[in-house]
Amino acid sequence: MTQTTALPPPKAGAGVLDLLRAFRADEVAADRYAADRLAKATAVEPRLKAFEYLPIDVTRRPGPLSGIPVGIKDIIATADMPTTNGSPIYQGHVPAADAWVVERLRNLGATIFGKTVSTEFAWRHPGPTVNPWNPDHTPGGSSSGSAAAVAAGLVPLALGTQTLGSVIRPAAFNGIVGLKPSFGAIPRIGVHPLSPSLDHVGFFARRVDDVALALALTAGASDGDRHGRPLPAFAVDLERGLEPLGKPRIGIVRFEKWSRAEPGQQRAFDAAIARARDAGAVLEELELAAFDRENWPAINTILSSEGALIFADLVARFPDRTSDQLKSQVERGKALAALDYLKAKAIQEKWRTAFATEISGYDALLTLPAFGEAPRGLHATGDAEYCAPWTFLGVPAVTLPAGFGNNGLLLGIQLVARYREDKRLLQVAKWFEAALGFDPGMPVIAS
């Protein structure tokens, strides 16, 4: 009788494609992987605080994502576990149905691996999650728990949302890959709104191929989300991943706020440019001065106006269970005139129309995802000014880890492309990932 040799269990930092390939060769590993991750999550949760709720049933289901545990941000509805929206108002609330994207993941065979901590209604009041690289620092937000859980190796894939910078910034702070797809690429049915003109569903993972696969499998449209527009379909090969775009042409966008970036972030950014040039890419400085001046006031007007409409009644009914940050946002929105909102929407439409022409000749833009390392303290989640322009436009954006800063925390870069050119952006990102050749490894978390 031939004796088979047991394969070693997948490493904690294995990516989605790594795991799917391993599971094909070892069904036992596939059956036990989510349970192993649950044991690890349970052990480190008192320290990391990434989860609002951990799953009870992690039985593997059939499908193209079979055996893959996926963390779900806690503003995204799950019918079999609580969805608190980061608020005591919804403590213990179990929705009647899954969000559209959760149902899609279940149908793909993914294991819905609990609910990850969100700031209150995905706005600025932080939850308890710490940065896995240093618990004295924020993990970023609002998708705090999703980013920390992927960085810590508890799940290889997690859902987040972004209205200003809530996928890109925490991904950068935690040293992982974050993808904000084009606006409307994934229906938001069952996702608690913050600003419907700006809300995006996105992903956290360890590799570009992994977020590319997640988007390829979950992008879609639904009559229930009037902002939805399906992406051109694409596939990701499990053996080779996504085909990278060879020697891309990239515009470098620093913006006027560049001078406020930490020196370490500036150095990491310039080093990434040098490595890309050495690898054969063409990179040129690009000025977007008018867009730089106009996007931040306009996006905040839109967010405050729409947020006030959504949350004013809630704040009035539950003043003792809503934060000062949410109350302030509602007051800002109520103070705005209808004309202010309409002007901001007109600016948004102007730039959404003009952007493709503004970056003509480039495959993507390269910019910062944040001003530097994750700030110290858990009272705030960092500045979103480098993420907001691309949320405002609704164009796809991805962040990659690019190095360590002076405090031993992660620094990233951000790539951006034209609306609905998500596949092209991801091909550029995969090329850049190889050119950087940077792997931050895994943080050590005391259990």
What is the CATH C level class, in words? Alpha Beta
Query: How many helix segments?
Result: 12
Distance N to C terminus: 43 Å
**Domains, number:** 1
Main β-sheet description: 11 strands, mixed
**What is the fourth-level CATH superfamily?**
Amidase signature (AS) domain
Q: Could you say what the CATH architecture is?
A: Alpha-Beta Complex
CATH topology: Amidase signature (AS) enzymes
Structural class: alpha/beta
Shape: globular
Estimate the strand proportion: 5-15%
Strand arrangement across the biggest beta sheet = 1-3-2-4-6-5-10-11-9-7-8
- What percentage of residues falls in helices of 4 or more residues? 25-40%
Compute the CA-based radius of gyration: 21 Å
| Spans of at least 5 consecutive residues with low confidence | none
The run of helices and strands is HHEEHEHEHEEHEHEHHHEHEEH
User: What is the strand tally?
Assistant: 11
What is the averaged pLDDT score? 96
